[in-house]
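sorry to bug you again but im stuck and you know this stuff better than me. theres a chain ive been looking at and ive put its sequence and its fold in token form underneath. id like you to explain what the token line says about the fold, in plain words if possible. anything you notice is useful, everything is just below.
___
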Amino acid sequence: MATDAPPPEAGTDPRPAQPSTEAFTAVQQSAEFGELRRAHRSFAFPLTIGFIVWYLLYVLLSNYAGGFMGTKLIGNINVAFVFGLAQFLTTFLIAWFYSRHAAAKLDPKAEAIKSRMEADA
């Protein structure tokens, strides 16, 4: 087939060397990796819990506070509609906040760990 790549020449492998299982275990137990995990968890867990609470509030209000949720705000737009749109807005805001957090705090640390492991392999 025309799209098949030619086999690599003897002794040349285009892929980087893979670290050993022991190297992965050592990195996983390192303080640097623990700091990376903490940086991720300290951001992701509170936002996840907050969003779940916000979503459950929306569902519970929709089920048990029909009068409140049916309150018209402007024309035919009621509280339930605004809360529903706010669910989408918060989803996108959380994704945006996480991408900024990851780019600023997580990615540099992860790249440093990855580069060191590839250099040691």
